[in-house]
Amino acid sequence: MTYQLSAMLRVKKPETVRAEHGIPAEVYGVTKENQSLVLPYNEFFKIYKDASESSLLDLTVDGKDAGKVLVQELQFEPVSGKITHVDLRRIDMKKELTVFVELKFVGESPIVKSSGGTLVKNLDRVEVKCLPNDLVEYVEVDLSVLKTFEDSIRVKDLKAPAGVVVTRPQGESVIATAKPALTEDQIKAMEEASKTADISKIEVAGKKEEPVEGEEGAEAKDGEKKEDKKDGDKGDKKEEKK
Questions:
Q1: Which among 162, 179, 196 is the end of a domain?
Q2: What's the predicted TM-score (pTM) here?
Q3: Which segments constitute the Large ribosomal subunit protein bL25 beta domain (predicted)?
Q4: Do 76 and 121 fall within a single domain?
Q5: Which residues, in sequence order, are CB contacts of 216 under 8 Å at separation 6+?
């Protein structure tokens, strides 16, 4: 799928751009100078929702073709979650590139379906290397091969499209497995362990701190010493007066 992204050269401060419902952006790469841009918020947000991180975008700047780009990095406002800045990476269509591609899980695990097990996904994307024209938005993971609880899908099992080579993680890394459903005894044991942990926390939280052994005796001795000192001081003073 092709995505069109229009932008304008930025001349205003980032704060002003955001106040005017735009997104400050920076585009760089392919031995060209970096450019500061303004992206229309609604237009970019729609692309962000629909496209993947490996989707090539056709960029125009002030109405002129600026080539193809990838979204390299996004920044968000912590409270509202709004996009506050975008970094775009120019792509040389004649050179191989390395980029992360999402994994798309298709089909259904027979053992999960028949035995009520749980599908465990360890990865949601992999790094690939390819020419830009061979770049895909996702690599499929066929779950139908998980026929027993001993089966697993590893990176080396992926069937990447022609021209696409998976570079990371290593081939033995597990993508997905099927785990048996918990038995009633296991669930009860977990519940009991949870209750025991909660009671322990309550007891610790409510426990009054006991003084360290010897503290009271030490305080008493200190008190006696202080009294002795006071009495001694008085006696010394009386002797002086005489």
A1: 179
A2: 0.70
A3: 97-179
A4: no
A5: none
Helix (H, G, I), strand (E, B) or coil at 46: helix
Instruction: Beginning with the edge strand found earlier in the chain, give each strand of the sheet holding 174-179 in spatial order.
Output: 118-121, 174-179, 152-154
Sign (positive or negative) of CA dihedral 89, 91, 95, 99: positive
Q: Between the CA of residue 211 and those of 124, 132, 208, 218, what are the distances in Å?
A: 54, 71, 9, 11
pLDDT in tens, 137-147: 999 999 999 99
Domain that holds residue 82: 3-92
Q: Tell me the per-residue pLDDT of 48-69, one tens digit each, with 9 for 90 and over.
A: 999 998 999 999 999 999 999 9
Cβ–Cβ contacts within 10 Å for residue 227, how many? 10
- Answer yes or no: is pLDDT of 240 > 80: no
Cβ(71)–Cβ(108) below 8 Å: no
Same domain, 78 and 7: yes
Cα–Cα dist 84/78, whole Å = 10
| Structure-block tokens of residue 115 | 């035995």
Of all helices (H) and strands (E), which one includes residue 152?
Answer: strand 152-154
Structure token digits, residue 62: 């002030």
For residues 39 and 86, the answer to whether their CB atoms sit within 8 Å is: yes
Q: Is residue 72 part of a domain?
A: yes
